[in-house]
Amino acid sequence: MTQVLVLGSGIAGCSAALAAAESGAEVVLATKATRPAETTTHWAQGGIAVSRGDPDAFAADVLEAGDGRCDPHAVETLVENADDAVESVLVERLGVPFADDYGREAAHSTDRIRHVGAETGRHVLAPFLAHLDDHPRVTVREDTAALELLTEEGRVRGALLDRPDGSKEAELADATVLATGGVGACFPRSTNPDTATGDGLAMAARAGATVEDLAYVQFHPTATVGEEPVLVSEAVRGAGALLRNADGERFMPAVHEDAELAPRDVVARAVADERERTGGVVLDTTPVDFAGAFPALRERVSDAGHDPTSIPVAPAEHFLCGGVAVDDRGRTSLDRLYAVGEVSRTGVHGANRLASTSLLEGLVWGRRAGRDAATRERVTGDPEIPSRPERDPALPDGFVDGKFERLRRVLGEHVGLRRDPDGLERACAALRRLKGETDAYARTRPSREVAELRNAATTGLLLARAAREAEPAGCHALEGVPCR
């Protein structure tokens, strides 16, 4: 039994583990990732926003981007803690080599993005994981997936883990921190890694935790076309790149006064509209020193077979603004369960996330949750461990892949960038059936792939139901309802 169990190894999980350990707790960090690239943090390009001594201006930008749905207290918590968290952890502790200049991205009123080219995430995560590997109070378990939360009378006591060899282990803990990332793998096109199957969200919901704002799924406007999209960072548009339709016309100035730097939901819908109207959209990088300022990104775009001076782009699922509801210390509605990072709903993002606030939110709430989790009193006694079959019966050929394809098709058609009430009703009906099928298989098969499928199906149904009930705002747009 450990004091603090952290599930997930992105910036939020790493921050929670470090804060808990520095507060004197013994920590186990379990992650199904086997390398940093399997976490969303590693994929983060643009950077991490800071207040630069003006939290009020930063807060105003966050609130404006959130389209009236942000929690003001959560926004205040974010901006007031931003500079200290980045400086003390990322700069002083980890030595992240941020550039001397500050970048600017969509919906920011000034240059405030700390970045390392267009590959900030990998420069943050690699030293963070190395630091935790060397910490005497942190045990990192890679290739270890959480199958289910262990509960006892409304209290979370840890999680049932799937080890690399397929064996199952009940990891009991005085406090459990979900840091499992987002839901991108549930959609046909996403900027997330394939591991983003909504695990923490689904496990928390099954355990009875409150979830909120799941209608607000953000789509990034500039991901390369094709089955394996490459995210083209907003920082490129911040540096001067322009969006043009298939006729070569620049269209964003007619859509929003901030043109290419309008809020993400506005730009994403405009890109989708122009693709439908003219047949395509490209990001024109000729006004930018693309090779000099973003060499690694330029190489990835070129390796994917695209002209780096005129990149064909389309929206792709990027970030879930809602999640497991938490307070300003990451505490959920269930005793001893915390949630941080994209799996959580802090209230910061409202209906649309401001660019380069995801790493910051994970860092700030991870620190606060880790410190609080370390103070929980020890628990005695063992909860009831769910019984699992000793052997995993063979699945029908193509079962998991087929169900995932069906899930992605439904979400892509009906719970994507634009939605309509009839489509959402059809999605809910289809996803109810899919969830029932996956639940039945999960009861007799304890394998990791079935658990991921079950979590993805549960997550898909939660998203569709939330979208069916929510009022249009931000990145939740309904056909026929005017958008901002």
Labels describing this entry:
18% strand; 484 residues; alpha/beta; globular; 18 strands; single chain; 38% helix; 4-stranded antiparallel beta sheet; 7-stranded mixed beta sheet; 14 helices
How much beta, percentage-wise?
15-25%
Mean pLDDT: 94
Number of helical regions? 14
What about the largest sheet?
A: 7 strands, mixed
Can you walk me through this structure?
α1 (11-22) links the parallel β1 (2-7) and β2 (27-30). This protein is of the alpha/beta class. α1 (11-22) packs parallel to α11 and α3 crosses α4. It has helices at 11-22, 40-43, 55-65, 72-93, 120-133, 199-207, 234-238, 264-278, 290-293, 295-303, 358-373, 399-414, 421-444, 448-469, and strands at 2-7, 27-30, 48-49, 113-114, 138-141, 145-152, 155-162, 168-178, 211-212, 217-224, 242-245, 281-284, 310-320, 323-325, 337-339, 344-345, 418-419, 477-478. Strands 1, 2, 5, 6, 7, 8 and 15 form a seven-stranded mixed sheet that branches. It has a four-stranded antiparallel sheet with strand order 10-13-12-11, with helices on one face. Strands 9-14-16 form a three-stranded mixed sheet, with helices on one face.
